[in-house]
Amino acid sequence: MTRIVIIGGGPGGYEAALVAAQLGAEVSVVDSDGLGGASVLTDCVPSKTLIATAEVMTSFDSSHRELGIRIEDGTHDPADPARVVGVDLGRVNKRVKRLALAQSHDITASVTRAGVRVVRAHGRIEPGQARDGSREVVATAADGREERLTADAVLIATGAHPREIPDALPDGERILNWKQVYELEELPEELIVIGSGVTGAEFAGAYQALGSQVTLVSSRDRVLPGEDPDAAAVLEDVFRRRGMNVMSRSRAESARRVGDRVEVTLKDGRTISGTHCLVAVGAIPNTAELGLAEAGVVLRESGHIKTDRVSRTSAPGVYAAGDCTGVLALASVAAMQGRIAMYHFLGDAVAPLDLKTVSANVFTDPEIATVGYTQADVEQGTIDARVVKLPLLRNPRAKMQGIRDGFVKLFCRPGTGIVVGGVAVAPRASELIHPVAIAVDNNLTVEQIANTFTVYPSLTGSIAEVARQLHTRKAAEES
Q1: For the chain, how many helices (H) and strands (E)?
Q2: Residue 15 to residues 19, 85, 111, 315, 351, Cα–Cα distance (Å)
Q3: CA-CA distance, 432 to 359, in Å (whole number)?
Q4: Which helix (H) or strand (E) holds 151?
Q5: What DSSP letter does each residue of 390-428 carry, written as one string?
Q6: 365, 370, 436, 338: which is closest to 61 by C-alpha?
Q7: What is the edge-to-edge ordering of all strands in the sheet holding 407-412?
Q8: At what angle do helices 89-113 and 44-66 cross, to 10 degrees?
Q9: Which of 70, 438, 467, 472 measures 20 to 30 Å from 373, CA to CA?
């Protein structure tokens, strides 16, 4: 029987374990924290659960004005535009951690039922290969006991941890990283968020909605510099309109405790003060102390593991998946990398990873969802494509729901009309992007999308409308 050892229990690890077990392999997962990894325990699941509470708060705040909903407790003046609901952050965080642990337990139960052995330990690869091509993984438990596991193939799926600023080290109380925020019992009165990437923007928006006064420190020209510029502009406008202090082109150099406050010093010498500070400046791959270099695994300068499109590393029989590869920091991509690795090694049919069909979402309010080629690809000449953007303000369903911000954008090839990308900025854009993803993955044309019935009224109607405009433009160019 083929023996598979997986080091790391994140999405890349546990999804690979399930596939390998289903294909008849003997599978062991070596993990020291709990299956699900950071994605389930300290990152994706917890943050999106927190954001779900923030969404409810935003709905209340907008509904009682826009939709005419009144919430009275005998003291509140309905004409007063002040907040009408509050949040118990300690209770919210207890629920966040409870759901994260429950999800981890569900994953553990699932892989165990599939016949996978879970070893609670830290794993490392021993240098060298046996004559039969097998490798040895040493699993070291918390009490120091070691177990040696022989593997025909090893998958590294160890994830990543928060990057730190040397002069702004977290203390877990006032200066926090994105793993520590769930220990807070009270809502930060004034929160400084350092970093305007996806993690920083999501937390900044969530805490602003929960009731904190948020200052977002961005070293770049705009919030979410890696996202569609039109989408980022909408979100930054929403942030500012809701009272957030967005500081562009402002690099933080240090953060220090001053009594019950935190003082952040910027590179230009300015200082800002708040009750708490969240440092969200990226992640470092968990590739140290795994014996990778000794095993012949090539790492990039960033510390990420170099892989090909079927998740192979430079070392025979060693694969890698997830955030430790630096491919795309998405749970869906990590899971696909893990599955591809097992399909490839075990000889099953496999398609190489295609990042141009990956759907991604930023869980801000409004959400930003993308798939396929981007505006930057078009502007840089990577692909020749036609682009149409339609504001949601023109959508009847959006008007009914009081949605003022957002749009749908599609990219299609000029000759064939094949859809090659799209962007949705809206509440629940993560759901709205799916029909666009189907179109991209199946090479559908704007004509096919335009001729497909949509529910009236619905936000998906805007996707069909954009497709009709692109189809009309294509027809005009051909005539």
Answers
A1: 13, 23
A2: 6, 40, 9, 22, 16
A3: 11
A4: strand 146-151
A5: EEGGG-HHHHHHT--S-EEEEEE-TTT-BEEEEEEEETT
A6: 365
A7: 359-362, 367-372, 419-426, 407-412, 386-391
A8: 140
A9: 472
Strands of the 135-140 sheet, one edge to the other: 122-125, 135-140, 146-151
Q: Convert the pLDDT of each residue in 266-293 to its tens digit.
A: 999 999 999 999 999 999 999 999 999 9
Concatenating the DSSP letter of every residue in 21-47 gives HHTT-EEEEEESS-TTHHHHHTSHHHH
pLDDT in tens, 141-160: 999 999 999 999 999 999 99
Residue in 315, 311, 361, 352 with CA at minimum distance from that of residue 157 = 311
The DSSP output letter for 19 is H
C-alpha distance from residue 143 to each of 28, 222, 355 (Å) = 20, 48, 41
Q: Is the pLDDT of residue 39 over 80?
A: yes
The residues near 176 (Cβ < 8 Å, ≥ 6 apart) are 170, 184, 276, 277, 278, 279
Place of tokens 């007063």: 80
Provide the whole-model pTM: 0.92
Residue 416 to residues 246, 445, 446, 478, Cα–Cα distance (Å): 42, 7, 9, 11
**pLDDT per residue as tens digits for the range 161-193:** 999 999 999 999 999 999 999 999 999 999 999
Mean pLDDT, the chain, rounded, equals 93
DSSP state of 306: P
Q: Which of 438, 460, 386, 388 is nearest to 417 (CA)?
A: 386
Q: How confident is the model at residue 470 (pLDDT cuts 50, 70, 90)?
A: very high
| Cα angle 349-351-353, degrees, rounded to a multiple of 5 | 145
pLDDT reading at 84 higher than 60: no
From residue 394, how far is each of 377, 388, 459, 472 by CA, in Å? 27, 14, 10, 18
The SS3 call for residue 255 is strand
CA separation for the pair 263, 256 (Å, rounded) = 5
Structure token pair of residue 247: 């500081």
Q: Is pLDDT above 60 for 223?
A: yes
In angstroms, the CA 249 to CA 236 distance is 14
Cβ within 8 Å of residue 45, ≥6 positions away: 36, 39, 99, 100, 103
Question: Does 326 have pLDDT greater than 70?
Answer: yes
User: Which residue has 């170099």 as its token pair?
Assistant: 306
